[in-house]
Amino acid sequence: MTGPSVHAGSLSTAGRARLAELADASGIRRVHMLGWRDLDDDEAGGSEVHASTVAALWAEAGLEVTMRSSASKGRSAEGFRDGYRVIRRGSRYGVFPRAAAAEITGRHGPSDALVEIWNGMPFVSPLWWRGPHAVWLHHVHGPMWNMALGDRLGKVGRLLEERVAPPLYRRVPVVTLSASSEEELTRDLGFSQDRVGVVEPGIDARYTPGGTRSETPLVVAVARLAPVKRFSMLVRAAARARERVGDLRLVIVGEGYMRPDVVATIEAVGGQSWVHMAGHVSDDELIDLYRSAWCVASASEREGWGMTMTEAAACGTPAVATDIAGHADAIRADHSGLLVDGEQGLADGLARLLGDAALRTRLQAGALLRAAELTWEHTAVANFEVLATGSVANARPLGTSGP
């Protein structure tokens, strides 16, 4: 991808009216959002797409939104995007104290409410912010700390996430993306269930069925090449599946510092002729890949959701993915895709779906039904309801019924 982009579309009359009603009742007109990375960052992913889409829809409704993140290489320190203000200052870790200091001293300008996007490292906003407040916490990072920082520093990160920070947030409404992630937050981080709500993300209207399926079995995987995504495991699983589905091809979309490891795995399994590292692709190219694929796949260890799974679903393409929090909600098991355990399970799931035309047809229909449940307007309105009311009571998934 050339970097994630947002094309959520416009609010309906009813959605705009509801946001205006909530803004009038709460007095919230100016919202500041604190996040780790900006949408234009080279390593931006689903979390940044989510935040930026909601910010754009809030701005469309007349709210003044400021998004603060770390500096992004090659991008200006300040600017505007889709109607909201962007501030990019500070290093990857320096952004946390610098953003807090800027809010405390008013350098970001006046605000009526604050959204903290807690992505592993918290901004500890309850210590310095008084006013309408919400935290977006997409998932528990758990083993991701060790993957990114090694065992010694990883233990420090886990201690911060699991023991030190959660008590500070006990009075703040926390919004997550899926019911399975909600369970993790209450079980692993000790959040009270009445303070955690679920608001599922939407799907951009540009993701629709069309085009032509590949004549041969095509698997597409889209994500940053980071340890948590476990692309090497996916390549090995695809190689095992290819022993049963001899013309299987795999296309990997994305860039990241794990690329050399993934390339080494491709060479180790003899995949040079059937695995293609596409790197960054355009939005149109990504949609074409979703539409031509027989399935999308993910071997990820942790996810708050599975945005590429639901984007593909809107194109009528089912998924084969690890059975983890986030995936377990983005995918309706055996309805819009298959949830599997481990490398062998991933290989078996790929071989099963690619080798069974009747199963693929059923899952393709289920994928479209699942995607139809998800809209960015609902996401934007429900998150503002939490911010305006201080309650997660209305933060519920739209589609809770099974197949």
TrEMBL record:
Matching InterPro entries: Glyco_trans_1, Glyco_trans_4-like_N, Glycosyltransferase_grp1
Keywords: Glycosyltransferase, Transferase
GO molecular function: glycosyltransferase activity
Keyword flag Glycosyltransferase: yes
Entry keyword annotation includes Glycosyltransferase: yes
Single GO BP term: carbohydrate derivative biosynthetic process
Residue intervals of the Glycosyltransferase subfamily 4-like N-terminal domain: 45-205
Cross-referenced Pfam families: Glyco_transf_4 (PF13439), Glycos_transf_1 (PF00534)
Protein name as annotated: Glycosyltransferase family 4 protein
